[in-house]
Amino acid sequence: MSELPDFITGADIIKASGGRLTVPLDVAGDMAKGVTAMIRRYCGWHVAPVVEETLVLDYDGGGVLTLPTLRVEALLSLTVDGVEVADPEWSRAGDVRLGARPAKWQGVQARVQHGYPVEEVADLRQVAVQAALVGLASPMGVVRESSGQVSIEYSRTGLGVAGGLALMERDMRILDAYRLPRRA
Question: Would you state the pLDDT for residue 4?
Fold first, then answer.
């Protein structure tokens, strides 16, 4: 799979700041890359856009294989232990019925088209913009600045910390809709 596009661009971040963010475009672009990587890591898969990819997976022999995706457009091919499965039964959520077959580590290859079209993940993109803005608002981690009677307090990403690359609780609640279930 070729390199995936980021969910947002540096220009998206600067535009969303309403002109208040005064960082160079390349700095905002680096933050867009970092935020995209953080969200994909949190979700456990690429999420968007729709891509064609060959997945190499372990199979426990339990009858159903769950692909690491939440949205399958097409299951293009499936091989188990080197043997192609003709007309496999699969769900859009990423489950494939394999029936009784021996368990095998890395024994399944599934070529799939999967992911969400970018226009369907506006909430995820908004989380990315918000996380980037918070991260860039105080790049040195300053919580509060004061001069005379004027005081500015920045969004906190943790106890006594502002700025930096972090997902807030509200962000994680939105992203949970795109997050793969954790395996035991």
Answer: 94
